[in-house]
Amino acid sequence: MKPIVGIFPFSKWITRLFLAFLFYIVYKDQLFTWQFNDIHYLIIFGLSIFSILLILGGLVRNSTLTIISAILLLIFGIIFLILESKDQISFIMSTISIVWGLLFISMGNRSTNMQKSR
């Protein structure tokens, strides 16, 4: 069976939107405290900002903003995993950041899948 290539761009957009929505749902109480002297807050704030920049990066033709946002999501996800892996939610959120950071580093803004570009 062949994969459905036509839904690939839609699935990338759902992934981008879901990441920002997930950070908002999980950390909305902490995000609006504006505690810039707390490292935990800075990491959550950075992950949220870079997930929003990942969405904005998909709106431009060049992949630079998407790749830079994905690299920073990956870095902040690793830092978050090291510092805040005590509870399950922090572990899951850092793992999602790392995985989706790697995903968008490898894909950028490409709108077709790997088999079609060969």
What tags apply to this protein structure?
single chain, 118 residues
Give an overview of the whole structure.
The protein is mainly alpha-helical. Helix content is 75%, strand content 0%. The longest helix has 24 residues, at 8-31. Helix 1 runs antiparallel to helix 2 (39-59) and helix 3 (64-83) runs antiparallel to helix 4 (88-107). It has five helices and no strands.
Briefly, what is this?
The chain has 118 residues and is mainly alpha-helical. Helix content is 75%, strand content 0%. The model is unreliable at 113-118 (pLDDT under 50).
Q: Supply Rg.
A: 15 Å
Overall, the morphology is: globular
Question: What do the pLDDT scores average to?
Answer: 86
Low-confidence stretches: 113-118
Helical proportion, percent range: over 70%
Q: Secondary-structure element sequence?
A: HHHHH
Number of helices: 5
Task: Spell out the blueprint of helices and strands.
Layout: H1 8-31, H2 39-59, H3 64-83, H4 88-107, H5 114-117
Helix pairs in contact: 1-2, 1-4, 2-3, 3-4
